[in-house]
Amino acid sequence: MLVVANDEASVWLNLHGVLSEVPSTSSVQPPVSPLWTKPPSSFLKCNVGSSWSPTSGIAGASWLIHDSKGEVLLHSRRSFCGITSKPQCDLLALSWAAEAMLDLKKEKIIFEFSSVAANSALMDPLSHPAVYHACHRLMWLINAIQGSSLHQVPELCNSPALHIADSVIRDHRLQSYVASNGPSWLRSSISNEAAGSS
């Protein structure tokens, strides 16, 4: 009964222009490996991390771009305020990363994230009305980047990005930046990740 009601609501809302169809050409791909892997030749990999404090409403977000050798070309960190839920935090981080890739004119990007909450919302946006439009915007952005895809991976595959995002909350690093290579305090972790990948 609930499924039928949701389907009917979706049809009505789409007909009346309240909701748009979520692009289907860029669905979230399941994890392939329990460990981080280098992107194929001619592709880039963008690992996206996010962290949220429910008490302050502050969220941290980060991304790192890796080439096919596993080397970090660029990374970035920023904070958001007024965030009210984990799915909102995680989807905002992903959209911010995708927007950055568009601004940098990057193509053929494998986006990786670890958020179970974001994945759940992306797989069934109508069951997550509070973040429906965030899901739609993210999928639109991914589709706008030629040759790109979105993958949920275990946290172990995404640890440098998660550490950077966590530093926003833990260490109150609220200043945004974009920098070449990876952060010096994660150099060992990033090197080990690249050395152990295929």
UniProtKB/TrEMBL annotation:
Domain RNase H type-1 stretches: 49-166
GO MF entry, a single one: RNA-DNA hybrid ribonuclease activity
Domain of life from the UniProt record: Eukaryota
Pfam families, per the entry: RVT_3
Annotated InterPro entries: RNase_H-like_EbsB-rel (IPR052929), RNaseH_domain (IPR002156)
Protein name, per record: RNase H type-1 domain-containing protein
